[in-house]
Amino acid sequence: DVARMFNEVLVLATKDAIKVEQDIEDDKLGGQIRIRAKRGLWGSWAETDVSGAEAAQASAASAVAAGPIPSADVATEE
C-alpha cells in the first residue's frame, strides 16, 4: 500500500495537481509530509479514467460543485 500511495503522489505531483512538502530538521529523514491540493487537481485530465476514456458523470442537474480539499498532514512513526 505504501508503494502504491507513493506512486499516486508522484503522478499527481508530476501533473502539478498537488504540492508535497516535508519538514527537514537537522538533516534527518522522517519529517512530517504535507500534501496540498493545487488548482490543477481539477483540470480536464482529471475527467478521464486510467485508460484515458471519459469518466462516467452524473447528470448536470444533480451535480454538486467540488470545493477545495483541505491539506492532509501525514505523520511518520518513529
TrEMBL record:
Gene3D superfamilies: Structural maintenance of chromosome 1. Chain E (1.10.10.580)
A Pfam family the protein falls into: Rad21_Rec8
Location of the Rad21/Rec8-like protein C-terminal eukaryotic domain: 2-23
TM annotation in the entry: none
InterPro entries for this protein: Rad21/Rec8_C_eu (IPR006909), ScpA-like_C (IPR023093), WH_DNA-bd_sf (IPR036390)
Protein name: Rad21/Rec8-like protein C-terminal eukaryotic domain-containing protein
Organism: Periconia macrospinosa
